[in-house]
Amino acid sequence: TQLLEQSPQFLSIQEGENLTVYCNSSSVFSSLQWYRQEPGEGPVLLVTVVTGGEVKKLKRLTFQFGDARKDSSLHITAAQPGDTGLYLCGRGGGSNYKLTFGKGTLLTVNP
Amino acid sequence: NAGVMQNPRHLVRRRGQEARLRCSPMKGHSHVYWYRQLPEEGLKFMVYLQKENIIDESGMPKERFSAEFPKEGPSILRIQQVVRGDSAAYFCASSPRGTGQETQYFGPGTRLLVL
Fold first, then answer.
1. How far apart are CA A74 and CA A76, in angstroms?
2. Confidence at A83, pLDDT banded by 50, 70, 90
3. A53, A96, B29, B109: which could join B94 in a potential S-S bond, CB 3.0 to 4.6 Å?
4. B16: CB partners within 8 A, 6+ apart
5. What backbone phi and psi angles, to 5 degrees, belong to B82?
6. Three-state secondary structure string covering chain B
């Protein structure tokens, strides 16, 4: 059972465009994490959101946690080729150590 | 993912051979987690270990797979009699205390290809 649904699965855009990717679940998150995974590398944590309605910014990246804590979005402004990668959302299990991930959004930013 | 080391980065095995994947956690981290990433399934938890103890192996196949984290040395994920379906990227992550909400830092992964 896929607990975390990410959309879109693939996204190819031109440098300078804006984009939003989504992470949704039918159940409530206690916390949610966003990772970026570059080709041939492991996931790197970008941010953790905990509070419903929370908004966090990381340079050109804006992360939002839904009020009901069932969904989250990642918005990238003025995308650059260096933003290319697989964006994963993940959540902890009952004891939080067992991370569950969505399948990810594979983003390609073309120069 | 700075600090978590995995080797080899790429491993090719023929069906029936054994694969041994190694993970050295970040300095000061005594909790290790192994995940497997299959192309169509995403990243999935396999096993959680502390030094000399397996805490949770609920995500690891019951046969052919084993994991250890000895008192000295790296954590080892061992796959015996590999089959083509074992081809995947295997990631190790580590954390300092293993408590809830704690960040897990991932290594670069080992890409296993079974011919």
1. 7
2. very high
3. B29
4. B81, B82
5. -60, 150
6. CCCCEEECCEEEECCCCCEEEEEECCCCCCEEEEEEEECCCEEEEEEEEECCEEEECCCCCCCCEEEECCCCCCEEEEECCCCHHHCEEEEEEEECCCCCCCCCEECCCEEEEEC
CA-wise closest residue to A71 among A34, A40, A26, A38: A26
Measure A40 CA to nearest chain B CA, in Å: 7
CB atoms within 10 A of CB B92: 31
pLDDT digits (tens, 9 = 90+) for A16-41: 999 999 999 988 878 889 999 998 89
Q: Which residue has the tokens 């080729």?
A: A81
Nearest to B108 among A41, A93, A95 (CB): A41
Contact by Cβ (8 Å): B50, B31: yes
Separation in Å, CA of B88 to nearest CA in chain A: 12
